[in-house]
Amino acid sequence: MKKELITQWSKEFTELSIYRQDRLFSIQGVFVWGLKLSKIANVDRFRPTFICYPLWRTNIKACLEEPLFMFQIYRMNGFQFDIEYKSYQLEMSEAILCINNQVPIINTKELKLKDVYNFLDQRFSDVLVNSSPVGQAKIYEGKLFLALYLNNEEEMVKVWNELIDSSKKWDPKFFEWKYGKITDWLSGLQTVIDNRAVFMEQINLNLQDNKITKLKKGIVV
Fold it and tell me: What's the superkingdom here (predicted)?
């Protein structure tokens, strides 16, 4: 059933590749992102979830251990999906429409940087991200490293300035449990920026890992 399910969903999202029986992913710039059909505990049902992983960590295992962010796709009436595996076709049309509305960049091969940034900026309005310095830091890290990957110095400066302004408002105790002192974390980001060649080498090494080599690749310009 799950194999049939993911095959049917893959026909609707042609720029994504089947990664597992419950996941459709693609590579876009410095991200691996896509859909996870998340099983609901203790029942034979699932909910579509968008998930985004980084590609700059020390190896692909580390990249895929923890997402930058993820969020559920909601129905048009604002409620959660609660789709039965055995009768998923009944709700598939609405789910696909909602996915395309809530993640308009998901099925596009060539993306403009501004469109990716607009999508990432929308995450700041998410309650869980808005209330979490760690959640905000991950989004800024993604924006910053995407600009670094594209060697877009103008956007790097803009994002860096946004990050500095936002970091001044963060409560250290809600940040340091994850990343340590804010100043040290910012210094670490600056070190990565100053060593772009090392950063690019790590990205390229991760892209060659067999776990993701079969994923479709998009372009960010």
Answer: Bacteria
Whether 59 is covered by a domain: the verdict is yes
Task: Identify whether residues 105 and 11 lie together within a single domain.
Answer: yes
Model pTM greater than 0.90? yes
| 1 — pLDDT class (breaks 50, 70, 90) | low
Do 78 and 140 lie in one domain? The reply is: no
User: Do 198 and 123 have their domain in common?
Assistant: yes
Residue numbers of the domain that contains 117: 110-207
